[in-house]
Specification:
The structure holds 2 protein chains of 2 kinds. By secondary structure, chain A is mainly alpha-helical. Chain A has helices at about 15-25, 30-50, 55-70, 80-110, 135-145, 150-160, 165-170, 175-200. Chain B has helices at about 5-15, 30-40, 45-55, 55-100.
Chain lengths: ~200, ~100
């Protein structure tokens, strides 16, 4: 995937390394250029996992705050984009887990008769990048993706929504390429099963 | 007459509905909002300290250090008790000796 600046001008890897060095020295201009060139990558990753526009923007902002604070920890052992993906995935998962905990807690307290009302199921998510013909089907698919186990959900979403190759997903998730292949294979099998049930019920 | 797609076809079509998805774009005001967020919540020294201590290497080293310190304190207090015990024995022996001398 090409590295594109917000102006549309290609963003070379050597230039990226230079910007990272400048950011390590505290150059705010370098930070702005990094944000402008990588914001879509981070936002789209968070959006794919969280399936909510506001949450995705919040998480994308947190990712760049983390980058600003921890750029000294980036040693260049992996690609900068891999590092960004890793932070985006971690932050998104933290939010998903905290939401699940709150939902469970609200369920328990609602059973005990307190005033915590159960949150309704999130509204249908339509990814802005999906083609018009596929919009309806993608809503069903995204809903089904939320039922996958965590690792399958991450691997499948990164591959399908962000178009990341298996090799890079393996680096992001600190797993082997064969493990990623297996995760995506199992994710597809689980999705097939869930979608079959859905279409049988809604015939 | 158009044939209704089978369940299997529906599943495959749905699975491939994300095949040509394009990347979602962040708001054009993303950087401005990010700056506003960063200015409104400056990182305190406590946040930095907590995030430093929360690193596994740091927290494990600290745990190991405190375990060692704890072990050292326990053993040194045991040795002190043994010394105290021998002093008490000596005093008791002396008293009984003088008691025997003066019937």
């Amino acid at each position: 995937m090409p590295l594109i600046e917000s102006t549309g001008k290609p963003f070379q890897r050597s230039e990226e390394a230079e910007l990272i060095d400048l950011l390590k020295k505290g150059d705010d201009g370098a930070f702005k250029r990094i944000v402008e060139s990588k914001k879509d990558l981070v936002y789209n990753t968070a959006l794919g996992l969280l399936q909510n526009v506001e949450d995705a923007e919040d998480i994308a902002q947190e990712v760049f705050i983390k980058v600003y604070e921890s750029i000294h920890q980036f040693k260049g052992e992996s690609a900068f984009s891999t590092w960004l993906y890793r932070i985006a995935v971690t932050r998104s998962l933290e939010l998903i887990r905290s939401r699940k905990r709150k939902k469970r807690f609200a369920f328990i307290t609602s059973l005990l008769g307190e005033n915590n009302e159960l949150r309704h199921d999130p509204p249908e998510f339509i990814h802005p990048g999906v083609q018009l013909d596929n919009k309806e089907r993608s809503v069903i698919l995204f809903k089904s993706i939320t039922k996958l186990p965590e690792n399958q959900r991450i691997a499948f979403t990164l591959h399908k929504v962000e178009g990341i190759p298996y090799q890079e997903i393996a680096e992001i998730m600190s797993l082997s390429v064969s493990a990623i292949e297996s995760l995506i294979h199992r994710a597809k099998a689980n999705l097939r099963k869930d979608l079959e049930n859905y279409y049988k019920k809604n015939k | 007459m158009e044939q209704q797609p089978t369940t299997q076809n529906q599943v495959e079509l749905t699975l491939s509905s994300l095949d040509e998805v394009s990347r979602a774009e962040a708001s054009p005001f993303f950087y401005t909002r990010l700056m506003a967020k960063m200015e409104s919540s400056p990182v305190s020294i406590w946040t930095k300290a907590i995030s430093f201590l929360a690193q596994p290497a740091v927290s494990l080293s600290l745990l190991f250090f405190f375990l060692l310190l704890n072990g050292y304190l326990v053993f040194s207090s045991l040795e002190e008790n043994e010394d105290l015990g021998s002093t008490q024995d000596y005093v008791a022996q002396q008293i009984s000796y003088f008691d025997n001398l003066n019937p």
